[in-house]
Amino acid sequence: MADIASSVDSHVGKRIRLLRGLRKYSQERLAKALGITFQQIQKYERGTNRIGAGRLYEIAKILGVPVGFFFDELDGFTTAANVGVHEEQTPFHKGRTAEKVEASMAEKEIAGIELLMMPETLELARVYYSIKEERNRQQILNFIREMAVRP
């Protein structure tokens, strides 16, 4: 259970880092808005310190997203703990061990969050949204999609 919980902490931390980068917030700026040190932000982003519900709500409010954003793309979170029910909770992914779930989560994070955090991706997003004409943005998006499927 502790391993799965720490992977959730890591996932949430990566989502904070991603969003902070997209919003052009430094660790210092976010920390100041929260009334904590930038070192605490670093610990949150690495997943070494857990973020309480109230603090996560504050972060979501400052960065302008719903709290659920931090849990997007998080799956495979299962528990065998008894939470007031007389039987174990049913895993979301039947037949998968915790190790397989952890590996699957890690692969998705590399493919998803890490890809979004690459400098080229951030620059592309900034430049794309600096184009005022929505029709032009749509044409560029269609062009990129076409290029992606070409052999």
TrEMBL record:
<dbReference type="InterPro" id="IPR001387">
    <property type="entry name" value="Cro/C1-type_HTH"/>
</dbReference>
<feature type="domain" description="HTH cro/C1-type">
    <location>
        <begin position="16"/>
        <end position="70"/>
    </location>
</feature>
<dbReference type="Pfam" id="PF01381">
    <property type="entry name" value="HTH_3"/>
</dbReference>
<dbReference type="InterPro" id="IPR050807">
    <property type="entry name" value="TransReg_Diox_bact_type"/>
</dbReference>
<dbReference type="InterPro" id="IPR010982">
    <property type="entry name" value="Lambda_DNA-bd_dom_sf"/>
</dbReference>
<keyword id="KW-0238">DNA-binding</keyword>
<protein>
    <submittedName>
        <fullName>Helix-turn-helix domain-containing protein</fullName>
    </submittedName>
</protein>
